[in-house]
Amino acid sequence: MARAWNQGEQERARRLERARAAGLGKVVDAARIGDLLNAILVSGDRICVEGNNQKQADFLSGALAKLDPAVIHDLHVVQSTLSLPSHLDIFERGIARRLDFCFSGDQGVRMARLIKENKVEVGAIHTYLELYSRYFIDLTPRVSFVAAQSADREGNLYTGPNTEDTPAVVESTAFKQGIVVAQVNEIVEKVPRVDVPADWVGFVVKAPKPHHLEPIFTRDPAQVTEIQILMAMMVVKGIYGPYEIARLNHGIGFDTAAIELILPTYAESLGLKGKICKFMSVNPCPTLIPAIESGFVEAIHCAGSELGMEAYCAARPDVFFNGPDGTMRSNRVFCQLAGHYTDLFTGSTLQMDLEGNSSTATLNRVTGFGGAPNFGSESRGRRHASPGWLKAGLESARHGSTMPRGRKLVVQLVETFQDKMAPTFVERLDAWKLQEDFGLSLPPVMVYGDDVTHLVTEEGIAHLHRCETLAEREQAIRNVAGYTPVGLARDRKVGENLQGRGIVQRPADLGIDPRMATRDLLAARSVKDLVRWSGGLYDPPKRFRNW
Fold first, then answer.
1. Of the options 2.60.40.1470, 3.40.1080.20, 1.50.40.10, 3.30.365.10, the CATH number for the domain spanning 221-521
2. For the whole model, what pTM was predicted?
3. Which of 71, 137, 479, 530 is 20 to 30 A (C-alpha) from 101?
4. E.C. number, please (predicted)?
5. CB 523 within 8 A of CB 291
């Protein structure tokens, strides 16, 4: 018998026919979402529920969790972020079984419990780019559920400022004979711009309420501590300045918020305006507003938007990538690629071992990695030069090679102790135990030690890329590990040698007086200050308003 080469098309047609037989058209009433899911899903399907950092297909996710597990079960979920309870409800109820993901955020504790109870079978904890890439290789969704701002009657979608994962999810599904279901906030006569064309979309559902958006990139300057300001000063004066870091990607915590907030004050006093932090790939963090308004940051490409920043981004088209409709166009894939080829990444972690390997997957919390592994890795395909990239490459050169190479700077910015006095530095990462418990082929390491060039704590900077041996790297880490057990086990003589060679630098070595690390250095000391800096364009969510 001749092989049929269009089995995917035939399967898609069968499912669409079941939906038509149930009386469902392109635009589906929200009350009939269960009928739609039962028509287009089959047990064992590989599915993606758009759940990224901010935008959530929450109505569709909730509907999936209400399916009868006797009818639909053993789904394989391939989605970047699991941040809603309903994302894990489908595993707890037996509707889904296998999971490939990137980040679980607040669901990390529950995720760890479900894995231990054998209700979640983890394929791998991916980076964003890695998972998106596998959508086009071996993890293509059969059915995808996405969220958009609006749709017209034909099914054209407008995503608004939060495009995020949508293009990667939709294109992989639609062009491999899968089915795309979109929940939208409104049905309109004409969408402001077509972000997804109608013939890529199988069904549209107007959700009973707007899709969930989480302001996860908002950091209240009032909560930035003096330790974080001290570390920010060391980063600016000890790394950004000497390496002339003009293009970079930042993490999203209070540590990096402190850096953003001292650019118009401390960095400007060092004469670094126009020399550092000019081009960024990062979400529109409100704490960047003073640096933008003071002329430090010139351009930003964003993975997604941030609640309250819509009007500000729309009013700064020279800084943000805005569409002809006037709103920002984000794209997580492109932002990840842009960040991969910047000169520097500054991030943070929950644990670091003596080789500099780090992970945010710990015994009681499996948060995943998001984009950090891609941002925080050497971009060996890079062929263009910059001063910082060349300087780091020269400093990293080892004996034997005559070929000049550059190197991306990867900075880990951590305090020596985490919450509840848990030491950041450990002899052995929890990742090794998780590998054993989850049956993984590799320990879930977020950033590998040989990719890290700089470690910054409140104790000082360790220039890890300049260490000659692993033993020397270990001592450099121990010498900035403070009063943790790892730090207390340091060799003082070796430490003095490293400090003498400039591989370990204390604040005093950089000419920084820790007593100057006060909140007076912050360009904005409250959310209300950020609103003032924006000229009233920033509209923070209610939870951040205390005035």
1. 3.40.1080.20
2. 0.92
3. 71
4. 2.3.1.187
5. yes
